Structures are given as structure tokens and as C-alpha cells.
Amino acid sequence: MAGVELDDLHLSLGGNPVLSGVSLRVEDGECLALLGPSGCGKTTTLRAIAGFVRPSRGSVRIRGEPIDAQPPHRRNLGLVFQDYALFPHMTAAQNVGYGLRMRGMPRGQIREAVARALALVRLDGLDERYPAEMSGGQRQRVALARAIVIEPHVLLLDEPLGALDRKLRDEMQVELKRLHRDLGITTIIVTHDQEEALSLSDRVAVMFRGRIAAVAAPTELYRRPHREDVMAFLGRANFFDARRQAHGASGHHATAFGAAIDLGARAGTRASLRVGIRPEHVEVRPGEPEAGSGEFAAVIVDIIYRGSSAELLLQAGEGQRISADAPATAMSLQSGDSVAVRLPADHCVVFDERST
Predict the structure, then answer these.
(1) Is 2-233 a CATH 1.10.3210.10 domain?
(2) Domain 238-351 top-level CATH class
């Protein structure tokens, strides 16, 4: 059974289209990340599920039931916003229990439910603290506890880690993943952070210009995207043009940078190809390329130190640029060095068409 189903959602604001036919199925108990640049429609999609905006066309179903006519407070959804939206005059326990009080739950049951929720987010003993007395990570946990204490059908998180620093964000990613595993609540996370989407979700839906561009498991989406613009958005990537040529009975080669890349059947039938490869998969070694090895010559233009790794900016023939990653601990190369470069065919992604 699907936890959430979106069917052909359309919405315009001020005459400008924001959602243009968004259809999506989130399985019961699944964690799905809505990922995309600012203005792509991901937060509007979340707001349509929550009932804060009403699409001009399309429908929203929760556990198979249409909820389009239901107001937000009737949809049994847990919501966590980027700014947490905590009541400053209430303690952590009072903030967490607010939704239960609005539902008329007896005080004794509220105390027990709040204690369980605070324990789940590891805030035992902090129930009497006010938001101003808590760190950003603790306030975020209070917001999470408030969302899950009502036992929602679906948990909606809008940029939940956006206000945290990098170290705390990494820690909270681990906590969010643990919480989802323990509770099994259908969860939709809106984020513009690619790493966050890949690490937290079972699947990622990439949005551009009010449309779903791709939906897949994180590993599949990162390694084998079907669109160039998706690969470009989801991490760093090199793109280049290649020419297809027959290669006996074994399939086809593609030539690029003056070298042959054995793409086999993936080269298709078109003469011109568009190919992508991640920098971490580009192989670089000092010296000249070996004949017949698939290597080509390049010169290191610059080296960017990134801590555990270094990014090599390379210039090949005809002014073409390509980047490659190398372990910083093994770096003996310098700017100006001549190197041999190889693009492993297994890591090359061939696109049917250019990005639009």
C-alpha cells in the first residue's frame, strides 16, 4: 500500500506555474527525499500534501484515501520546518505535548506520550528547558518529537537540517536515519543538499521547474542517471562529446580526447554521443599515455585541496577540460605535470539526449 500518492498536481501562483503535472508514489514506511534547486517546486509539493496550498488540478491520497477536501489539521501529518516553529514561552515537554492537548488527550496519557517521544529523540531530562536554553540540535529534536508524538500517518520534513552547522548536520543525519528505522513512518524530506538526500532516503525524487525529473534509489541515481541535468545536479561530474564508431564483432567504441572508450552496446546507434563521468572515477597517472590502452595525454592546470582528497583540473587536447579526484595522502603530482588519463567505460554514462 502506498503511504502517499500524488496524481498530476498542477498549481500556479501569481500566474506563474509552480507545479506542472507532479505525480509520485511513496510506499508505506518509505523515506523519500524531494531534491532540487531553489524554486523547483519541492516545498510547494510538500505544502500541497500538508494542505497549506490547494492544487488547481490533481489529487493527493494518504494510505489510499483522497484528502484533498480535508484541512491540514485533519490529515494526521507530522510537520517539521526549517525554523522549527517552537513556542518560545513553552518548555520542551509543553511544545511536544501541544498537539495532543489540542486533540483532547487526558493529561496522564500526554505525560507518558511526551516522555516516550523525548526519549526517542534522546532528550531525556531536558523536558523543562525552554527553546532559548537549548542548542540548535536540541531544538530540532524537540520539533521532531512534537511531530512524531501524534503518531502521524506521514512525516513531512522541510529542510529540517538547513539551520544547523556542518558538523551538527552530519550528526543529525545519523539520528534522522535511526529514527526512521525505529519508527517506520512514511517520510518525505525536502532538501537542496545532495549529500543529505542520498544519505537519508530510500529513494530520491529530483525536481526541476515544477516537474519530477527522476526517481530512483540513491546509488542508482548517482551512478546511472538517465538525464545529464540530473547527473550535473547530483554531485560533481564531467561531460564531454564523443563519436561512435564500429569495433568489429565486440560492439562499438566511442572516441573522445583522442582516445577510444569501449562502451559496447551502450554506444547505441547515433554517431554523436554525450557522455558523463564522475571525477572520482577518472584515472590519472604520471607520464605519457600507452598506445592502445585507452589513455590520453593531459596537463594538470590546477590542484584543489579538499582534505582527504585533491581535485585535479586537467587540460586535454583542443583546450578540453576535465577534473579528477586523487587521494591527498598519495599526491605527488604538481601543477604543470604531464599525465596519462583513462576514463573507465564501466563508469561512463551515455545519455540519450542533452539536457533541456
Answers:
(1) no
(2) mainly beta
